[in-house]
Amino acid sequence: MVVQNPNNWHWVDKNCIDWARAYFVEKLGSISAEDVESKINVKITTVKSLKGDCEVCQRKGKVISLFDMALEANYESSSGHKGVITVPEIMYDTEPDEYQFNLDDRVDEPTRVLIRSKIVPQIREVLKDFGPTLINVHGSDIQVSESQVMSTFTKGNQNLTYMKPVVKEKTTFNKGESETKEKKSSPLPEYAQKYNISSLHLSSEFNTSAEQLYITLLDPQRVSLWTRSPPGGIEPKVGAEFKLFGGGVEGKILRLVKNKEIEMLWRLSSWKEGHYVKILFKLNQGQNETSMDVDMNGVPIGEEELVEGNFKDKYFRAIKLTFGFGAVL
């Protein structure tokens, strides 16, 4: 597939439904199980059908998978029964433990128990690996190579696509007001991978100093003013966990560079439990004003406009109106 897409900036997609069928034929065809006590064994014989849509897509260097399919697999039991296992919905944002498996009504009880206890877990593992494998196999087909990409933004997204999730060791956070040394930003945690994700960059100018803006984002009294709600645990301490806007937003402070940077985990309460966006606030002091650059990594695909709109309204606009830190359009 020849791609004409300078810097991997534009939307490109590829239909992968035929590859998906071949994938499930190969992976499911090797699944079998036996019950020692009843001496019954069950094996998947064929993939009866796979219907729906399956694509890999990319924009601004970030490759994602989008699929919504239904699967039927034939099986045979040594009891003499032949039937079908149905997975009615295989979607790109479904957790492995959320998949539903339906069996035909005529199945005998020993076979049903064996399928539920030993066959279904194997199918679940195949489904779990499908999304990452889809991207690894086809992602490079819809992008120009990294060597041809001049944009550091899209190149960074391109690297992140194929980065394995990092399992972080438990650490004891410093309980002081801030860290005096500037540290490199840590990789996106494993628990921020509940959806296909994208990145956002927002920026705004404030008629105040970087010091005052830093305090405004972290001081409990000031936060309660611009959020018009209790501060919910936020404070200028690494490790502080908070809930803002009446619990609509949750997060945790990861890193502080006084008057310069604030790094945090941040999530909407409506998102899947455990999914966070990593946000880095950069405060750049100018001669008469301070620019706030906000880099977000981990925004669920489809939620970008919601997050951007609410952030501009609830953070940028609210802070300016509350403290007179700039004109509001």
Automatic annotation (TrEMBL):
Query: Pfam families given for it?
Result: Aha1_N, AHSA1
Q: Give the GO biological process terms.
A: protein folding; protein import into nucleus
> What are the coiled-coil residue ranges?
none
Domain of life, per lineage: Eukaryota
**InterPro entries reported in the protein's UniProt record:** Aha1, AHSA1-like_N, ASHA1/2-like_C, START-like_dom_sf
Q: Which residues form the Activator of Hsp90 ATPase AHSA1-like N-terminal domain?
A: 13-140
For molecular function, the Gene Ontology terms on record are: ATPase activator activity; protein-folding chaperone binding
Cellular component terms (Gene Ontology) = cytosol; nucleus
- Could you say which protein family the record assigns here? Belongs to the AHA1 family.
Tell me the protein's name.
Activator of Hsp90 ATPase AHSA1-like N-terminal domain-containing protein
